[in-house]
Amino acid sequence: MTTQNYSESNDIIVPTNDQFTYRGLDGDDTYILVSKNNISIDIVDTDGSNIIQFPEWSKIKTISFTSDAVRITCDDMTVFTINGADKFSYDIGGNKTNNEIGKVSTFSEFAALFGLEIPVSGQVSAEDDKIVYNDKLAELYSVEVKNEDNGNKYYINGELAPDLKFTSNNTIIFDQNDPSTSNHPFAISSTKNGTHDGGTSVENIKFFVNGYNKSENEYSDIFSNDDSFDNAFVVFNPSADDTQLYYYCLFHSGMANDSSIIIDNFNPTAIEATFDISNNGAQDFIILEKNDPIIILERGKTYEFKVDAPGHPFFIKSVQSTGNSNLYTDGVTNNGTTNGTIKFTVPDDAPGVLYYNCQFHSNMAGEIRIYDTNIGGELVKDVPQSDDTSSGSNDPGNVGGGGYGGYYIDLSLEQTIQDIPPVYFDL
Asked: pTM for the full model?
C-alpha cells in the first residue's frame, strides 16, 4: 500500500484512494468516510484527538472489531481498516466540511451499536446492514424488482415479497437505489395493495431523494421519468398503534403478493374467506360469479370483500336501502368502497340477517345470512324464486341470532326437481 502522511495541523481528511494508507500526525484530525466502488483503505493515527465521521446516508454492511482495530465494509464493497481504533472517537451523522456534528461515541460505544463488545483477544463481527439517518444507525432493507411468471415483484434483501416484522419506535429504511426499482416507487399502507385497493399510504413514512425530503407525489414523479437521481430511500417509523401493514408499488398493483408488515409481534386475524365483488352494469353485484346472491357467514370469523365496482359503493347494512344510512358498523372496516377491500369480523351477537346494497341502485342488493355454524360450507347461494330478498321477508329471526345457536344446512336438490327452495332448520 502507498502511505500518505498528513501535517501536524488539525487536518480534515477524506480518504478515497484505493490501496492507500492515510496517516495523520500530531494534530486533531477528522476522517470523513465516503464509500467508492470496490476500494480498500487503511487509516493509522495514534497522536492527537482524532475522529471518524459517517455522514448522513452512509451504509455499513459488515463490521469487525479487535481490541485496537476495526474493519468496516460499506456499500459498493468499500473497506476501511482503522488501526489504533481504540484511540479514535466515532461520529454518527457528522460531516465537518459542513460543520455538522452528529452523535459521538467511544470505541466501545461504537461497537455496542452493532450489539458487540470489544474483545480482549481475537475478533468479533456483525453482518447487519445499517444506514446513518438522523445521527443514528437505522436498519437498512434493500429493494429490488424482478420479473416472475405473474409479473414484476418486489424482492426485499434478496427474498421474493417476504413478510416483514418490525418493532415500534425503531427506524426502518428501504433502499431504492437498485436500477431495477426504476418506475416502481415503494410505499406502505394499512390496506393490502395500497391505493390499488382503496387505501392510502400511512402517515409515518418519509420519502428522500438526493438527500432531500420529498412528498409522495414528488417521489412518484421522480420515478416516473428518466431524470437521474441518487440516494432514494423510504423511511418508516412504526408506531405502537400499527399492527398489520402492507408494502406496495405506487404505480403497479400486486407487486408485493399477499405479504404484510407485522409490528410488535401482532397476531393477525385469520381470513375465513374472500369474496370477489364486481358489477354487471347497474343491474347486479357479481359475487363469486353469482348475481346478487345470498351471502352466508359465521359469527366470530373474519371475511374480506374485495370490491371492484366503480360507481357502485358496496355497503353492509342493517336495513336494506339505498343511500349511506342504516350502516352496520360492528366489526366492519372500509364500508362503502367502490374499489378496495372491506373487512368484516362478524360479532358473536350479530343479527341473523344483514344486507348489502349499492348506494345508488336498489336492485343491486341482497341478504347476508349469519349463523353460528355453516355446516354446508357454501359462501353464496342463488336466491330461490320464492325468496324475495329485496323485501327482507325471509329474515330467519333468531336462527343463531344473538348467540341463540343455529346451523345452516342446504337441502336443495339440483338435479331433475326444479324450484324447490333451500330449507333452513333452527336446531
From this structure: 0.71
